[in-house]
Known about the structure:
Helix content is 87%, strand content 0%. By secondary structure, the chain is mainly α.
Amino acid sequence: xxxxxxxxxxxxxxxxxxxxxxxxxxxxxxxxxxxxxxxxxxxxxxxxxxxxxxxxxxxxxxxxxxxxxxxxxxxxxxxxxxxxxxx
Length: 87
């Protein structure tokens, strides 16, 4: 279930990102930022869900949702700022 949803989210994000990049005006910058955060959120959710499912299959207590979700979301959104600032 995760793979088809992830593929659909990636395709929709790519289409939306291309349409926002083609636009101009004052709202274009806000649209780009909104799409980037939506893509980061979708990717973080996909990774978090995958890690939690793997944790349930292997019965590793460290990969429970309570621990994985905050780490993945903090690293996911933090990586955007780290990459942007280090460029």
